[in-house]
Amino acid sequence: MQHQGQQDLAAAAFGEAQQLFTNAGNRQAATTALLSSGGLLYDKGDYDSARRSFEEALLVFREIGAEQSVSAALNRIGNVYYDQGRLSEAKSYYQRTLDLDRKTGSKQGGAGSLGNLANVLDGLGDLQGSLKMQQECLQAFTEVGNKRGMASTLANLGIVLEEHRRSGERQKKI
To answer: I need a surface site. Which of 8, 32, 168, 173 has the fewest CB within 10 A?
Structure first.
């Protein structure tokens, strides 16, 4: 339903799933449904409500020790801050996500976290840092065989290289 543009039906289904899992005593699945509900709010552009859902999920995931899910919640909170232009906050959450991905050995998650951090560094004007991190990201996606991640990273790498070239041209004119 969510991927077919039926957001209201998806929201109702996530709400029902959350309630059913809660009644069955499955806190992780109930909280995953909450995280998914937050994703719907995020997709609608209701960033504050989405962030609150992600933060609520984060608390439960931490409490039950679901580290991969903690990483997902941290990443989504970072995404909210990134889309709101709050790059320092986004960087902090993406760094925490990367640290946790490395701790748990999630190479796929780590690759995505590197890409998110690289994009934040680009937004903060740290083109050298972004370039280095995009290259690490490309290597990580290559190692796990994620072609979609590789393609996205190559596009981002091209953007950073072009920005780097332009900044060099501006410096020459000064």
So the answer is: 173
CATH for 154: 1.25.40.10
Residue 151 falls inside a structural domain: yes
User: Does some domain include residue 32?
Assistant: yes
- Judged by phi (left if over 0) then psi (alpha if -120 to 50, else beta), residue 7 lies in alpha
Q: Return the CATH number at 24.
A: 1.25.40
- In a shared domain, residues 40 and 70: yes
DSSP class of residue 86?
A: -
Contact 113, 94 (CB under 8 A): yes
Q: What is the pTM of this model?
A: 0.89
